[in-house]
Design goal:
The complex is a heterodimer.
Chain A (H helix, E strand, L loop, with lengths): L7 H34 L10 H17 L6 H5 L15 H20 L4 H4 L2 H15 L6 H32 L2 H4 L3 H19 L2 H12 L3 H25 L3 H9 L4 H35 L6 H11 L3 H28 L2
Helix pairs in contact in A: 1-2, 1-4, 6-15, 7-11, 7-13, 7-14, 7-15, 9-11, 10-11, 11-13, 12-13, 13-14, 13-15, 14-15
Chain B lengths: L3 E9 L5 E10 L4 E5 L6 H8 L7 E6 L2 E2 L5 H9 L1 E4 L11 H6 L8 H6 L4 H13 L15 H14 L4 E5 L7 H17 L3 E5 L3 H7 L2 E6 L2 E6 L6 H8 L10
Parallel strand pairs in B: 3-8, 3-9, 6-7, 7-8
Antiparallel strand pairs in B: 1-2, 1-4, 4-5, 9-10
Helix pairs in contact in B: 5-6, 6-7
Classes of the chains: A mainly alpha, B alpha/beta.
Bound molecules: adenosine-5'-triphosphate and magnesium ion.
Chain lengths: 348, 254
Amino acid sequence: MTTISFAPKRHVEVLKAWMIDTLVWGYTFLVLFKIVWQRIILDLRFIDFSWSEPLACLALGAVVALAMFFTRCSIGKALYGLIDFQDGRSWVRESHAVLTLVVLALTFVAGIMVTQVSMREFFSESGLAGAQRIFTALLNPNFAIFEDALFAAIETVFMAFIATSLAIPAAFVLAFFAARNLMSGSPLSFAIYSVLRFFLNVTRSIEPLVWAIVFSVWVGIGPFSGMLALFLHSVASLTKLYSEQIESISDGPIEAMKATGAHPIQVIWYGVVPQIILPYLSYTIYRWDINVRMATVIGLVGGGGIGTMLMQYQGLARWNEVGTLVIVIAAIVWLMDYASAKIRARLK
Amino acid sequence: MSQLVLEHIGKVYPNGTRALKAVNISVEQGEFLVVIGLSGSGKSTLLRCVNQLHDISEGKMTFEQADVTHLKGRSLRQLRSRIGMIFQQFNLIPRKTVLTNVLSGALARTGIFKSLLGIYSKAERELAYRYLDIVGLREKAYVRADNLSGGQQQRVAIARALMQNPKILLADEPVASLDPATSHSVMKYLQKVNQEMGVTVICNLHFLSLVRTYATRVIALKGGELVYEGSPQDIDENWFTAIYGEDAVEVTID
Ligand SMILES: Nc1ncnc2c1ncn2[C@@H]1O[C@H](COP(=O)(O)OP(=O)(O)OP(=O)(O)O)[C@@H](O)[C@H]1O
Ligand SMILES: [Mg+2]
């Protein structure tokens, strides 16, 4: 038994720990009921879903969590450091560690069921025949479309290049407003910082693929929509990387430049820029590399370039042509990867 | 008339820390004034108030008969350009050559546009070479500053400060990250600047043996207050305990 003291701040942590426990237990019961009981033991073909089940599991979880809360068997308490760990005690004896393992194992089982892993299908006769058909075609690429493919590939590389170069100035300016050390001075600047950070995080967490779909409706299918998608995503991630670089610069050279009586613009140019320029270049080249890779995928949803071509031939099930395109894409990606790694190594 | 006069200077940081309390100092042209005191006694704060890297909260500061307590913008930059500063961590511009670093001392009198393009007149370049000669680093002019040893970096920092053609040179623990032999070599360059070029030096130091060798006058701070002022020869046992406390033992550096 651990004693729980209700100091003001602990109060909140205890509550949070209990909520975590409730979620863990609720999840465990739901998996046990839906997957282990209904799917595996009863082997039901169609499992219907109603909201009452997860809610019931959650309620049950809340009760169990409350009961277990006064033992050491509480993941929430362990996470918030509310359990005094005894030195030299084996983790096997820590019930919360064991519980964590059980939950992970259950998740693994559930995952296998949900993704419909089936060895039978993987090695079925028709399955193997299909695999043979597509691999034969892929390995016999039709080089008649090679020139078209190359043309589309160039479009893809340029799309990535323009997206990256347009993103640089935008990110360069935004980075100063997204750097905590520069913006934590006054409440107003900190508010700007927080809002900007929020929008950048949202923009970044939406995949360029999704942005491409949005923009293809907006400006029509083609390289322009792909470029816009990559541009937006690049601005968000470059701003983050740039601003982290600004946050890590040392004040020394800045102070020294101020002390010479330099103008603020000179202070930035001589005290800040030399500290960030090489990492900036390195990130930017890396970003271009990523953009080329993404540009091929973005084409699949109508973003133009070699991805669109791939989608068209795949739709027609012309696997020999698809083979050619796969080779061209692989070559570009490898080339960009290689070149960017080489250049970045030089920029240290 | 004194070159620099501080009257009742007080400094309160935004977080409420009182780092200086009613400090009165007069600095004469050509002095080698050393500031001593425990860590946290306000030595760095005092130097940074002189060139107003930190603004002065209370009191009055006079530089060459002009009130410079609360300057802003252009006039503040002008004041700073006449006061050079070197730092414990050297604070050179990384990834730039020694020459560029020295030339950056001339920023205050260089047009913004020219300085962005890195265009300096022939006269400025020659001046930079001359100061590199003085600190004995001419042959390193095109080496990246961060590839030099600590002592060399501090000498580049001295050349950069000289480039400002300063009336006063502030030195915030200039040798605290250097070994004893290098410390003396850097201190000798400061002495040279002081004696041969007539630049007033105000220097924070930790080692009393260095103080006795180089200072012409010493002041001591304790908890932000001035507790001692006198000649370096007069620092005896009693003063030592008064400044550094009962348990302190003098450590020497030769
Ligand atoms: N930027 C700052 N904000 C708030 N308080 C500060 C700041 N800089 C210094 N202080 C405080 O002011 C007091 C004096 O600091 P200062 O750096 O001037 O001491 P110092 O004598 O130079 O010490 P050291 O020998 O360690 O360099 C200390 O209590 C310190 O914590
Ligand atoms: Mg200090």
